[in-house]
Automatic annotation (TrEMBL):
SUPFAM superfamilies the record matches: Nop domain
One BP annotation, GO: ribosome biogenesis
Highest taxon listed in the record's lineage: Eukaryota
PROSITE patterns: NOP
InterPro entries assigned: Nop56/Nop58, Nop_C, Nop_dom, Nop_dom_sf, NOSIC
Family the entry assigns: Belongs to the NOP5/NOP56 family.
Main location: nucleus
Keyword Nucleus listed: yes
Localization (cell): Nucleus, Nucleolus
Ranges of residues in domain Nop: 256-375
Organism: Trepomonas sp. PC1
GO CC terms of this entry: box C/D methylation guide snoRNP complex; small-subunit processome
Protein keywords: Nucleus, Ribosome biogenesis
Name the record gives this protein: Nucleolar protein NOP5
Length: 375
């Protein structure tokens, strides 16, 4: 796997360690030519897979034992992975030179059989896929990114729906903003189909009909009404998918990090996990980084312009400010480490995180009551 110029190292015996799917071979290198000296074939194909996963094998033990008995000999390997394996298991440092090893591989290619290559490649790829599939972090990260994308699309479509309906019935949003999309899915922005809305109360029906009678909007064609209905139905479909995705993320996060989800809600925990890309990386972060996680762009802009840096990220959406946010970030860091490495968070930390938002609201309410009482 690598070769130094023989002219400079003519007094040193050079040997090349060759790896293949059928076994290991040791070649003697002389005058840029390789000659087979020792060969050890794997008895079963699974032995090649064990060797590929950097585990100790009888084949490597036998070849290294024979090699170490040769005085003044140097071993050439093709890559750093083999170098690390030999150094760790046998306390020997071979020579690594990928360019020189390519020349030797061209000579060795026709000397050894190439059996079991397909089996080894399939088994190794399957093992890597199994290891990757066991990580739930990737599923949560992708689901959270999809949820954020759905939020952007829903907001964009709602804006377009509002702008479109302003031409025909601009007063509808002020009368009933909560059911604006549901109403337009039936009436299509037109004032002609107000009697066909089944989910409105009698009072809401009266208010909408009264407002429609004095509306300043213009009439729409049948094609425009159909397009508004289609857009409203699309928004409702996306909102339904968003609710299902939020439920899925909540269930996954509760299983993956139950103690973290006791401190903060599951969606906020999933956003923190998404920014860190994995639970392992999240548990490595200090509390100060967790506190501003989610405000990285604002932080970089502030550092570039010498302005004030942000103090809160996703945790700010929990209603925490000042010392409460710092305490919550410290407890979040403890909870993540307990979930990843194993352990149990103290009940005092859990209670302080769960009730922190209520405590902040109670403090604000007490301050307002004091002001009112003083007046």
């Amino acid at each position: 796997m690598l070769l130094y110029p023989i002219q400079k190292l003519h007094f040193i015996l050079m040997y090349y360690l060759h790896e293949a799917a059928n076994g290991l071979s040791l070649f003697k290198v002389k005058h840029d030519k390789a000659k087979l000296v020792k060969q050890f074939e794997f008895e079963r194909p699974d032995q090649a897979l064990i060797h590929l996963n950097a585990q100790k094998t009888p084949a490597l033990n036998k070849l290294m034992k024979d090699f170490q008995e040769i005085p003044d000999a140097k071993m050439i390997v093709s890559c750093k992975e083999i170098y690390k394996l030999v150094k760790k298991q046998f306390n020997y440092k071979p020579i690594v030179d990928e360019d020189q090893s390519i020349q030797l591989e061209k000579q060795i290619r026709d000397l050894l059989p190439s059996s079991n290559q397909m089996y080894l490649s399939h088994q190794y790829s399957r093992l890597q896929l199994q290891i990757n599939s066991e990580s739930v972090d990737l599923l949560i990260v992708e689901s959270t990114n999809l949820l954020l994308q759905l939020d952007k699309e829903i907001n964009l479509y709602r804006t377009k729906l509002f702008e479109w309906c302003c031409w025909s019935f601009p007063e509808l949003y002020k009368v009933n903003p909560e059911k604006f999309v549901e109403i337009n899915a039936i009436i299509g922005g037109s004032c002609k189909f107000l009697q066909d809305i089944p989910f409105l109360t009698i009072q809401e029906q009266i208010d909408i009909e009264k407002t429609a009678s004095t509306s300043t909007g213009s009439e729409l064609t049948d094609d425009e009404v159909c397009r508004i209905k289609s857009l409203a139905n699309l928004i409702l479909t996306l909102q339904s998918e968003k609710q299902k995705l939020e439920s899925y993320i909540t269930n996954r996060m509760t299983r993956l990090s139950p103690q973290l989800c006791q401190l903060i809600d599951s969606l906020t925990a999933a956003k923190l996990l998404t920014r860190a890309h994995s639970l392992k990386q999240l548990c490595k972060m200090p509390a100060s980084s967790l506190q501003i996680l989610g405000a990285e762009l604002t932080l970089f802009n502030a550092l570039a312009e010498n302005g004030k840096t942000p103090k809160f990220g996703f945790i700010y959406k929990m209603g925490m400010t000042g010392g409460d946010a710092r305490r919550l970030a410290c407890n979040v860091a403890k909870a993540v480490r307990c979930d990843y490495f194993g352990g149990k968070l103290e009940d005092q930390n859990i209670k302080s995180g769960v009730k922190a938002e209520k405590d902040v609201g109670q403090q604000i309410k007490e301050q307002i009551d004091e002001v009112v009482f003083f007046e």
